[in-house]
Amino acid sequence: MRKDKLDVRRLVILAEGSFSVFKAKTAVGVIRYSPNKTVAVIDSTHAGKTVQDVLGFGGEIPIVASVSDSLQFQPDTLLIGIAPTGGQLPPHFRKEVLCAIEHGLDVWSGLHEFLSEDSELSHAANAAGVTIWDVRKPRTGLVVASGRALHTRAFVVLTVGTDCNSGKMTTALELEKFAQGRGWDARFVATGQTGILIEGKGTPLDAVPGDFMAGEVECLVMEHDAEGADVIFVEGQGALLHPGFGPVTLALMLGAMPDAMLLCHVEGRTTYRPDHTVPLPSMSLVIQTYEALLQPYKAPRIHGICLNTVELTDAEANRAIEQQKAEFGLPVCDPVRTGVAEIWEALEPLVRQKRSQAKAAKSV
After folding, report:
1. How far apart are CA 105 and CA 80, in angstroms?
2. In whole angstroms, how large is the CA radius of gyration of the chain?
3. What are the residues whose beta carbons fall under 8 Å from the beta carbon of 10, sequence distance 6 or more?
4. DSSP 3-state of 314
5. DSSP code of 295?
6. Which H or E element spans position 30?
């Protein structure tokens, strides 16, 4: 079900002790892009503030200390707003989840630990007549990729990164919205828990068995292509050279078979997350590696660089953008701070060209 067809929920987001741009990326993504309404955020360390106070956007959404404190805002769903490494429910979250269930709230979770299979939580949910949605549960009927996405009518764009948590989802969503505003049938393929919560459909790629990861991406791309999409923005995951998360990136590349890639990077970051012990390769090497990998297929290029400059001043961000433009000769932006117009201007002729080629082939 696409996001424009979702019933609008009233969310309270649980991010206790972790409500910040990088520690609560699920919360941040949902607040910024979900069609559902966030009515409160739970983090006792920021209680009394607003989301705007902490994130710099989000308006007057209140931050409270507990589920009990959030009930005055009439939520109907509790969302786990963090995605910790390993994906387990933090022990101090449990009492808040139970409290939400007891007060009749559904629970949405993107953790690797399936809350619906936790005996205490599932028993409580059954007793209260509420639903636990584990976003990361893969569907049944998984398939192995066969290269079908090599032959799409739509122009396929994959966001890739120098690291995890670098802005790949944000870039894809901002470009989807911008392209739609220009009259194109643009679609977003969600491949992580936050994207699925926003879009209402997708695949929790890092929870899919390895043999089927590329197949899941391929299926989603081909579904949008069959529906007549002009351009498909595929949400990236991980980073190809990341020692922990490289395999999921490879699966995305082989499943989506993109026509173009956009490189996402957190300006100033020099080591891989989450342990910060392995240095990032140079941007030049990262670009070369991404472009070389798919040369036997479509040979897609990096067509732009999307910087995450959230921790910089406007002057620092503008300086970083200009430096990257000069070094790589590519369009560079911060999708949130400066917008994606420059990136789209580089992609739009390619989208138009592929659509024309598809029409010509169909008429033969």
Report:
1. 12
2. 20
3. 36, 37, 39, 73, 74, 75, 76, 77
4. helix
5. T
6. helix 25-33
Q: Is the pTM of the predicted complex or chain greater than 0.70?
A: yes
The answer to whether 238 and 200 are in contact (CB under 8 A) is no
Quote the tokens at residue 3. Answer: 């996001």
Task: Return d(Cα 291, Cα 256) in angstroms, integer.
Answer: 14
**Interior/surface letters 11-42, b for 16+ CB within 10 angstroms, e for the rest:** bbbbbbbbbbbebbbbbbbbbbbbbbebbbbb
**DSSP-assigned letter for residue 37:** E
Q: Is 317 left (phi over 0), alpha (psi -120 to 50) or beta?
A: alpha
Q: Reading across the β-sheet that carries 301-308, which strands appear in turn?
A: 186-189, 231-234, 155-161, 260-266, 301-308, 332-333
Closest Cα to residue 220, out of 282, 278, 156, 265? 156
Q: How far apart are CA 352 and CA 154, in angstroms?
A: 10
Q: Is the peptide bond before 35 cis (omega within 30 degrees of 0)?
A: no
- Please check whether residue 109 is in contact with residue 86, taking contact to mean a CB–CB distance below 8 angstroms: no
CB 31 within 8 A of CB 61: yes
pLDDT in tens, the chain (364 residues): 344 445 789 999 999 999 998 899 899 999 999 999 999 999 999 999 999 999 999 999 999 999 999 999 999 999 999 988 778 999 999 999 999 999 999 999 999 999 999 999 999 999 999 999 999 998 889 999 999 999 999 999 999 999 999 999 999 999 999 999 999 999 999 999 999 999 999 999 999 999 999 999 999 999 999 999 999 999 999 999 999 999 999 999 999 999 999 999 999 999 999 888 999 999 999 999 999 999 999 999 999 999 999 999 999 999 999 999 999 999 999 999 999 999 999 999 999 999 888 777 776 5
Instruction: For residue 278, give both structure tokens.
Output: 């392995």
Q: Are 157 and 262 in contact (CB under 8 A)?
A: yes
Q: Which residue has the tokens 């890639």?
A: 261
Q: What angle do CA 277, 279, 280 make, to 5 degrees?
A: 135
Of 86, 103, 84, residue with least CA distance to 95: 103
DSSP state of 200: S
